[in-house]
Structure prediction request, 47 residues.
Amino acid sequence: MNELLEKLVANGLTQEQALKAIETIKNYVVEKFHMLEGAVSNLFGGE
Prediction:
């Protein structure tokens, strides 16, 4: 996830904006594709 965070920041987002974007995408994917929850948690870091 750090690599994605770095890319978002390099493309002009603040770290806070990048973290919010990642969290939003993570939640959306889990909501729409329940069967991918484990994979998404592994990729983006589970809470």
